[in-house]
Specification:
Elements (H helix, E strand, L loop, with lengths): L3 E9 L11 H6 L2 H19 L4 E4 L1 H4 L12 H13 L2 H4 L2 H8 L6 E4 L14 H18 L5 E3 L8 H6 L4 E3 L14 H10 L6 E4 L5 E4 L2 E2 L8 H19 L3 E6 L10 H17 L3 E4 L2
Parallel strand pairs: 1-2, 1-9, 1-10, 2-3, 4-5, 5-7, 8-9
Antiparallel strand pairs: 6-7
Helix pairs in contact: 2-11
Bound molecules: zinc ion.
Zinc ion binds next to loops.
Length: 294
């Protein structure tokens, strides 16, 4: 039997991921971005203690100094939402330089990728190929200036596309949703998503080379059960996570992801993830799995 793999990746974005549409206001008012600091400190300490390395897909705008948060390339409603976000959100909602510092200064070296400069959606018809290219070039500059790897991308909200543009800016690997999962752009209803979580088998990593040359890394399991999940949904969701971990222990390749701020939403996910990390560490120490990023 071949050794299984557990991969971990994080969408590292503070309020940038919900700047579009303005949901950052409610999160900020609930103290999520303030609580993110101690939550990330606990999470990174546990990763350090267990010597687990993950891939952090960074929104470049979050880790660049305020004077270089240039969003003049953006168009339409998204440009308006971003201008409001940058003008009105608190510093800790926008600026994640302290968060990145926490990750960079870990004893157990982490790997990095990009989550674009502005968290623009590649499916947004108002942002054409030129805007996507500009956004990626800005992100690439920020990564370079900080010495962070830029060869891997996590698409904002998993809306994949523009593969030849990715290839042109030096990206070799793109994290994709599970092949057997729901289409992230279609947004199925709540019941269908819950049913999917209950009956869909945990997905295995599958890498496919796109015609552009970019490797599409499919199959990712979202750790977060959602800010409003009741006990039943949590139970179903976590059963899936446990099934995926059990699959890894029998030789499969599985990939878990979440946003660091999910640990600060007060849903109990932080404790569940902490226990999961301990289980992952124990399986690794028993020689059953290797643990890595993507
Ligand atoms: Zn995101």
């Amino acid at each position: 039997m071949s050794k299984g793999k557990v991969r971990l990746s994080l969408d590292f974005e503070c309020g940038w991921g919900v700047a579009q549409g303005g949901a950052w206001r409610a999160n900020q008012a609930a103290g999520i971005y303030r609580n993110l600091r101690p939550a990330l400190r606990r999470f990174t300490s546990r990763l350090d203690e267990l010597e687990i390395s993950a891939t952090w897909a960074v929104v470049a705008g979050m880790v660049t100094p305020p004077e270089s948060r240039d969003i003049t390339h953006l168009r339409g409603q998204f440009a308006n939402d971003m201008a409001t976000f940058l003008a009105e959100a608190d510093r800790e909602t926008v600026d994640g330089r302290d968060l990145l510092e926490m990750v960079i200064s870990m004893r157990c070296k982490q790997s990095f990728g990009t989550h674009t400069f502005s968290h623009l959606l590649f499916s947004d018809p108002e942002q054409g190929p030129e805007v996507v290219l500009q956004d990626l070039m800005r992100a690439s500059e920020v990564s370079k200036s900080l010495g962070l790897d830029f060869s891997r991308i996590v698409f904002p909200r998993n809306h994949a596309g523009h593969f030849s543009t990715l290839q042109a800016v030096g990206i070799t690997h793109a994290r994709m949703p599970a092949i057997n999962g729901h289409n992230p752009i279609a947004r199925p209803g709540r019941i269908r998503r819950m049913l999917g979580a209950a009956i869909r088998p945990p997905s295995q990593v599958c890498e496919i080379k796109d015609t552009s040359g970019v490797i599409l890394h499919h199959a990712t399991e979202f750790l977060n059960w959602g800010a409003k999940a009741g006990n039943f949904k949590r139970m179903l969701h976590w059963r899936r996570v446990k099934q995926a971990l059990a699959a890894a222990a029998t030789g499969q390749d599985v990939h878990f992801w979440m946003h660091p701020f999910n640990l600060a939403e007060g849903t109990g996910l932080d404790h569940a993830v902490d226990k999961l990390l301990l289980e992952i560490g124990a399986l690794r120490d028993a020689g059953k799995i290797d643990v890595m990023g993507f």
